[in-house]
Amino acid sequence: MPAMDCQDSAPFASFGRSILSLRREQVHSVDGGGHRDSLVGSYDVEIEAFQKRVAGVFLDLASSFGDELLSLPWLRKLLDGFLVCQEEFRGILFGCRDGRQAHLSRPPLDRFLSDFFERSVKALDVCNAIREGVDKMRQWRQHLEIAISALRGSGGGRPLGEGQIRRACKALNDLTILLLDEKESPCILNLRNRSFGRGGKETRQHRRVGSAGSASSSGHHRSLSWSVSRSWSAARQLQTIGNNLNVPRGNEVAATNGLAVPVFAMSSVLFFVMWTLVAAIPCQDRGLQTHFSLPKNLPWAASITALHEKIFEESKKKDRKNSCGLLKEILQMEKCSRQLVELLDPVEFPLTEEKETQLQQGVEGLLEVCNALKEGLDPLERQVRDIFLRIVSSRTEGLDCLSKYHHSE
């Protein structure tokens, strides 16, 4: 994905001045300057650049408050932005310059990183649940395709027959039942879902990675990342990802050479992206009542907070309140299929010209949704898979780095 340029750099000019100035003063008072001051300066430049990139990504997303918000293209843009932020964050942490990797194992940065990696592994379960939701939407699309085929299948200007109407009605009624089951029984899933993980050696590695850290603290809703169980809850998982996500204090920023700031930023981005995926895509025990609060002085906080508030407002709207997901295409699918069912039940033959026109308009609406799902679901699943694998890779790299320098000290 090409780099995203921030249109207005003015809001970033004063970012973190109090915190960064405090850190410079503390470092200068301890170490007379030279290499240490140069090291701090290089961190400051990279940290500010990272903050600008995060702000630019979410300013662009926040500008899509119109029809694009919560659509498949918008959601894919969100995931692209996450991958950009994650890659730059990885470069800050594991850059080989200045021997900075040796700093990662020193307190309090080691604690911040351990908490971040713990949140990351919990996000893997969300990725698996979203993959399951994408697969469900593919099944819904198949019913749409059957209905479209039946209602457009006569061709040559011939009127629709009773058999075609019945076939379309059955497909739409089956879809309605699937949607109702999803709304009323969101926790009923297979005992074991498919996952992005593979069998054999890699699965065992994921098991080892997933069980690292405070395994007992997450309770039964932690599913060790390669599948989700019937008792797993997206709402509870989001709560555990967001728990104790606190802004680092000034002395903590100073003690970590400022690296606590990007760790907090990336943790917040991870939390928001996982929350948005759960909001948009059908998934097990969806729930959006998660506390989300950011300090106003951070340059990216306003756009993320605005997006969070807007999405939460959307979830309260009458036509979305009881939906399986807030994704725009789901809303269109439910609306178009409901209108067609009302047109087809009851139906009298021969169809009047007005009824035929209404049916064809409904079919065009279904076709638009069907094409959007066909074009967008596969790329979305690939992006979620990419996020899953990047998280695993980055977490493994981080834990190896922490272990290496802990042992060397």
TrEMBL record:
Membrane topology: Single-pass membrane protein
Biased amino acid composition, Low complexity: 210-222
Pfam families reported in the protein's UniProt record: ROH1-like
Transmembrane regions listed in the UniProt entry: 259-281
Subcellular location as annotated: Membrane
One GO term describing the cellular component: membrane
Keywords: Membrane, Transmembrane, Transmembrane helix
Disordered: annotated segments: 199-222
Family: Belongs to the ROH1 family.
PANTHER family: BPS1-LIKE PROTEIN
Protein name in UniProt: Uncharacterized protein
